[in-house]
Amino acid sequence: MVFVRTEELLSGMCLARDIHFYDMSLGSAVIMKKGQKLTDVNITQLLGAKLDGAYVDTATSEVRIVSSINQEIRREAISNIHSLADNFIDSSKGVQKSDIEAIGTTAQDLIDSLSSKKDILINIADIKMYDDYTYHHSLSVAIMSIAIGIELGLTNQMLKELGLAGLLHDIGKVAIPIEIINKPGKLTPEEFDIVKMHPVHAANHLRERNLVNENIYAGIVGHHEKLDGSGYPLKISGKEIHPYARILMVADVYDALTSNRPYRTPSPPNEAIEYVMGGMGTHFDERVVHAFLRKVAPYPVGSKVKLSNGETAYVMKNYPDQPLRPMVAVIGNDKTYDLSWDLNCLNIVITELLEEKKLNRTLINM
Ligand SMILES: [Fe+2]
């Protein structure tokens, strides 16, 4: 059983619990019984009654998870980043104005998608559906950065600059020999020195051609700097680091930690989030981390998780300020635990994300 928001219910889904509500248009109470298959009329009634959602049976119903960004925008984004990167490494060409215009359109598409559903959490599983790392990492970082920027109240112009910086931040990596980028073991100091220059290479190339303004430039150059000056390549600190770079670095670190890389297995979302929270104030800007925590859903609704008491459960509802403590429904009985609000559940934590894609679910394009 999972909790599905009313606007995401589909006809044919099977109710896993009774629903009682008052229908204003009928002027009477309505009961929909456990086991009943929802019709379009039922869903319209539930929408009219402004119910948050309903518990549906995962065994008999398809569950839809809202996707943050539709497939067409993703494909277009990856293709645009790819073409720009190809031109970047082609010394006879270099990045063209048309490449940046295409990336700018992608950035605006991402902003429009994310702004239109402000209350939707970014489903991390959903933006990590691909294997090809650098380009998809760039897209993930741009999506997360824009989401953080929206949460921080940035203007559209700022969001567009931030989105561009996110899409372009790692382009410098395509000029680094692939053996270094994908090296399974530890890098030698010389190899690490080469890697450390990737923010500068890309940013300088773009600035020399008048393709980016100073804000985008500073965002790209600074995305590996840390507040305490322990980052690279310039080792700048605090306010010397551009606000865009402070946003990009949180998105970049989170995405890198949770991605499958040749030199390590991905960290589970809770560990990555704890790492980011642990770096607040020393590595990462506190306001940025708080905004990030309000926008990510490391355990998307519908995921199957293992709990510290040995039970397994489905995630039913996420709370923006408590991304690691959603409401869950235990599998095999009727118990639900509200890990954020139920005082009896304070000692229960999620220990493992068991299945995030094995549920029978589809993505809704927005
Ligand atoms: Fe980077």
Would you mind describing this structure in some detail?
With 366 residues, the protein is α+β, with helices and mostly antiparallel strands. It folds into three domains: 60 residues, Molybdopterin biosynthesis moea protein, domain 2, CATH 3.90.105; 227 residues, Orthogonal Bundle (Hypothetical protein af1432); 53 residues. 41% of the residues lie in helices and 16% in strands. Strand 2 and strand 3 form a beta hairpin. Helix 3 packs across helix 5 and helix 5 packs across helix 13. It is elongated and about 70 Å long. The relative contact order is 0.12. The structure holds fe (ii) ion. Fe (ii) ion (FE2) binds next to helix 9. Fe (ii) ion binds next to helix 9.
Largest pleated sheet: 5 strands, antiparallel
Bound molecules: fe (ii) ion
> How large is the count of helical segments?
13
Shape: elongated
Number of domains: 3
Into which percent range does the helicity of residues fall? 40-55%
Task: Catalogue the unreliable spans.
Answer: 60-66, 125-131, 357-366
Q: Provide the CATH superfamily of the largest domain.
A: Hypothetical protein af1432
> At CATH's second level, what is the architecture of the largest domain?
Orthogonal Bundle
